[in-house]
Design brief:
Chain lengths: 318, 281
């Protein structure tokens, strides 16, 4: 009797003890869960904070003039309170367009070569170089642009077309940017091309098509969404690139009319004037407006391309 | 038939040329940096701070920028890890990894990754003005932390996904809570965490636009978080335009040092991730 009682007592004790430990462990689990939720929501809402913060800071300049006049006016006279962003927007567009025009064909051809033609041995050597290129910091691209591209344009390219150019031009910015977005486009397009089922290509080859015809009529068609996503992502990257472009672009606030004219992209405007922006009224607000503009455009482009890529991935998973 | 064969060969050569150009641009860049940087490299360059005033002083080296870069990149990566490890765990362990919310979060972090560093810099500057922090080491670290969080989260997220599901199921079925399971998984992905650290460090050490407003610039090595700090990219950016040849030389040498650091980091991380993927298989 007593023995069973003691046993029972012990059991109960152990059970209580177990319960205590278990509830403590569950409590710990819950506490960590809440903490992590806070971290996650905070870090994701950085997007919101940036958007709201920049918008609040650009309110003063938006009160003074409308969105339309800020975006379309070419008058840039901070001392008189005139902020027309048109030259800077055009500078950004020129540089971005040139870089995509240079990079896209080269990158597509490279991706085709890497995925379809290159023997395994060569592919293993090539891919790391593309990775290495993506690791190089922007400022190094800028130094390279100043030391290599600028003299090249000044002495060898520009003299064939215009009378005089310092080399600091939208073309230089475009070339440097093109090299910077090589790895981005190549890696995405290669990934997309690799996911195309081999049967499709085999079927085309079996019907007597050459390899190039197969690429053109099967691979490209299948990979179009992925290629579009890569290009959109590359455009947004080119839009926001600051230092490398700033170093080679000439930074003259007029609308460029040829590829040998200097330009002044938006990010360069922000980076170049942070020193004096606190001393001129509305100047800081105008620069924050520039940052807001960049942020909105890039946010949209990024969301579009990520959604396309996510869809491409989902299609493959099914 | 001959025309098609010709077309095939023509495009094949074109593709090979394009590939050579794309891969060759890497050599062109690194070659240019080495060609210009090596003549101005010396022991003084990496062991002394600049002397005789910034922009015109001819003596000394770039030790201030090297140390400053290490502080900023190290601090930002450390701080970023503290935030992103819980986030990655939350996405995979608590949200279950593959559902609408987790995938939405992934896209959000990808988008954050795409936001240019100049916007982070401007935002960081805005926050610093708001809280009354002057341009300092602390400001630089905070701005760069914002920049590296998306990289860390997405890399860790991908590494956690490579952990076999059986491992998680085993720990759960033994009665472990999700937090205890997370600890098991964290131990498993240690090499992956190291890869993430390297990637983030590489991005942090090379970025200019985010530290341009926030870190300030100084010829001295910062001794507290509230002093302005120089970084290697800033040293390159500010000194390249100098009319004094010696100061320009400092910029070239900084570029060389930065390139070497970044190349080592990139190679290390790719070797590591290759080893990691072998382990999993």
């Amino acid at each position: 009797m007593t023995i069973t009682k003691i046993k029972l007592y012990n059991y109960c004790n152990a059970y209580n003890h177990y319960n205590q430990i278990m509830s403590f462990r569950l409590l710990k689990d819950k506490a960590y869960s809440k903490l992590m939720l806070v971290f996650t929501s905070l870090s994701v809402s950085i997007v919101l904070f940036i958007g709201i913060g920049l918008y609040c800071k650009s309110l003063p300049v938006l009160h003074k003039s409308s969105w339309g006049s800020l975006l379309t006016s070419s008058e840039w006279k901070p001392l008189k309170g005139l902020f027309g962003f048109f030259p800077f927007i055009m500078g950004t567009l020129w540089v971005t367009a040139i870089s995509i025009l240079i990079a896209l064909p080269l990158c597509l051809l490279t991706s085709f070569y890497i995925t379809e033609y290159a023997p395994n041995r060569i592919r293993k050597i090539l891919v790391p170089f593309v990775n290495l290129l993506s690791g190089i910091p922007p400022v190094i691209f800028g130094v390279w642009g100043v030391l290599f591209i600028i003299p090249l344009i000044q002495d060898h390219i520009a003299p064939h077309f215009v009378e005089f150019s310092t080399g600091y031009s939208v073309l230089a910015g475009g070339i440097v940017l093109a090299v910077m977005i090589f790895p981005l486009i190549v890696s995405i397009v290669c990934e997309v091309l690799n996911t195309i089922p081999g049967e499709l290509k085999d079927a085309s080859l079996a019907l007597g098509a050459t390899k190039w015809e197969t690429i053109r009529k099967v691979s490209v068609r299948k990979a179009t969404p992925g290629i579009v996503a890569a290009v959109v992502l590359a455009i947004s990257r080119a839009f926001g690139e600051t230092i490398a472009v700033l170093m080679v672009c000439g930074n003259n606030p007029v609308v460029p009319h040829s590829i040998f004219d200097p330009g002044y992209p938006l990010p360069a405007l922000i980076a170049n004037n942070y020193g004096e922006m606190m001393s001129i009224p509305l100047y800081d607000s105008a620069l924050m407006f520039a940052a807001l503009l960049l942020f909105i455009i890039i946010l949209l482009f990024n969301i579009i391309s990520r959604l396309i890529l996510a869809r491409v991935e989902r299609k493959l998973a099914v | 038939m001959i025309r098609r064969k010709l077309e095939e060969n023509f495009f094949r050569i074109l593709m090979a040329l394009a590939t050579i150009l794309v891969a060759g641009s890497f050599f062109l860049i690194v070659g240019t940096i080495f060609y210009k940087g090596i003549p101005s490299m010396s022991w003084d360059m990496i062991s002394k701070v600049p002397g005789g005033g910034f922009y015109i002083g001819k003596e000394g080296g770039v030790l201030n920028a090297i140390i400053g870069s290490l502080y900023v990149a190290g601090g930002a990566t450390g701080l970023g890890l503290l935030i992103s490890i819980p986030v990655a765990i939350y996405m995979n362990m608590y949200l279950g990894g593959k559902n609408i919310i987790a995938n939405g979060l992934r896209i959000a972090f990808d988008v954050l990754f795409g936001i240019p560093s100049i916007v982070y810099g401007a935002f960081g500057f805005f926050i610093m003005v708001y809280f009354g922090i002057r341009a300092s080491l602390l400001g630089g670290i905070l701005a760069v932390t914002l920049l590296v969080i998306p990289i860390l989260v997405r890399t860790l997220d991908e590494v956690i996904q490579t952990v076999p599901k059986e491992l998680r199921d085993a720990s759960l079925s033994l009665g472990a809570t999700r937090w205890e399971m997370a600890k098991v998984v964290l131990r498993q992905i240690r090499p992956g965490i190291f890869t993430a650290i390297l990637l983030s460090f590489g991005r942090a050490i090379g970025d200019v636009a985010s530290v341009l407003f926030t870190a300030g610039f100084s010829d001295n090595i910062p001794t507290s978080l509230h002093q302005p700090a120089a970084t290697l990219p800033l040293a390159i950016f500010f000194q390249l335009g100098s009319p004094v040849a010696e100061v320009q030389g400092r910029a070239y040498a900084s570029a060389l040092i930065l390139t070497i650091i970044v190349l080592i980091i990139t190679i290390l991380s790719s070797v590591l991730s290759k080893r990691l993927s072998k382990n999993i298989k």
